[in-house]
Write a structure and sequence with these properties.
Order of helices and strands: HEHEHEHEEHEEHEHEHEHHH
CATH superfamily of the largest domain: Glycogen Phosphorylase B
Strand content: 5-15%
Largest sheet: 6 strands, parallel
CATH architecture of the largest domain: 3-Layer(aba) Sandwich
Radius of gyration: 21 Å
CATH class of the largest domain: Alpha Beta
Shape: globular
CATH topology of the largest domain: Rossmann fold
Number of domains: 2
Helix content: 25-40%
Number of strands: 10
Strand order of the largest sheet: 7-6-5-8-9-10
Distance between the termini: 29 Å
């Protein structure tokens, strides 16, 4: 889309936020090198009015502070600083203290109040703004009376429960459900593809539209991977008005619980997830109503347009 309107696209950064830290040196020294390299990369960026960090890593915050030019910047937070690297919280605290002392024109915000509260424990002296979450969902008029079509969406990995999926999908098919599995990475087994009730999707161009075609979405992720991290799949389900089944005790579960559209399983096993499916089926009409109410509530405070409005309102003179 950017290229279609004539925008120039180029690589800016040498450091990748999701890359592991190099071994053989203290982690704090490796993180310092990431910050310095990123600061050098930023120094080569042409003069602009505003820099936006869609997801801000601790070393990126330090690099933003190290700029000689007083560039206005807005950074968004999607997960705890320790999610990417174990040393992340320590480095974030250092950068936050530096930011408070330097009075740089940098605004830091998180995409939900739950994360705002979390970051205040890492950086009590730094104001963490509550940003609108840029998930829009799609209009969804479907109000099925019984649970029939179950979806699995997102990049399927071990952290997101891929090891459970063969047994889980088989069990759901045996119970007479239609099952939709997004497999854009080609990591899900194809042994059941001949079953007409199983739909395996490649790359999904319109993610929320596919979610809206389901009666419920199962998000079988491991609890430990999302204790301090939000989920795009869960956020899109809420925005689209589709009930979601997910593990209790994690940050996405707290979000779904607040909006009233989740059903929870309490251990990472097929039996526990199937028990949650049974619970959702038993109260399904009420659950659908709650999910539609949740979508209305979500769109009142979240969405791409609301985030753009927030950025425009807070960027001038920041």
């Amino acid at each position: 889309m950017a290229k279609a309107v004539g925008m120039a696209l180029h690589t800016t950064f040498r450091a990748l936020p999701y890359a592991r830290l190099p071994e053989g040196e203290p982690a704090i020294d490796a993180y310092r090198r990431l910050a310095n390299a990123t600061a050098e990369d930023l120094a080569g960026v042409p003069q602009t009015d505003l820099w936006i960090w869609p997801t801000l890593a601790p070393y990126q915050l330090m690099a933003a502070i190290l700029q000689a030019r007083p560039v206005r910047q807005i950074g968004g937070l999607w997960a705890s600083p320790r999610v990417l690297h174990s040393i992340g919280a320590r480095c974030w605290a250092r950068a936050a203290r530096r930011l408070a002392e330097a009075h740089c024109p940098v605004i830091v915000g998180a995409y939900d109040e739950l994360l705002c509260e979390l970051y205040r424990s890492f950086s009590p002296g730094l104001h963490i703004a509550r940003l609108p979450c840029p998930y829009d969902g799609v209009p969804n008029d479907r109000r099925p009376s019984a649970l029939r079509r179950i979806g699995f969406f997102g990049h399927q990995t071990v952290a997101r429960g891929i090891n459970l999926m063969p047994q889980l999908v088989t069990a759901l098919l045996e119970r007479g459900f239609e099952v939709v599995v997004q497999d854009s990475g080609g990591r899900v087994g194809r042994s059941g593809d001949k079953n007409p009730e199983l739909v395996v999707l490649p790359f999904v161009a319109d993610f929320p539209a596919e979610i809206a075609r389901c009666d419920v979405v199962i998000w079988p992720s491991q609890l430990k991977s999302y204790m301090e991290c939000l989920s795009g799949v869960v956020s899109e389900c809420i925005a689209t008005g589709v009930p979601v089944i997910l593990p209790s005790g994690c940050l996405p579960a707290a979000l779904a619980s607040r909006f009233g559209c989740g059903t929870f399983f309490h251990e990472s096993s097929c039996d526990a997830i199937l028990e949650a499916v049974d619970e959702a089926a038993q109260r399904f009409p009420a659950l659908v109503g709650q999910a539609h109410a949740a979508a209305t509530e979500w769109r009142a405070v979240n969405g791409t347009d609301r985030l753009v409005d927030w950025i425009e309102a807070h960027s001038a003179g920041s």
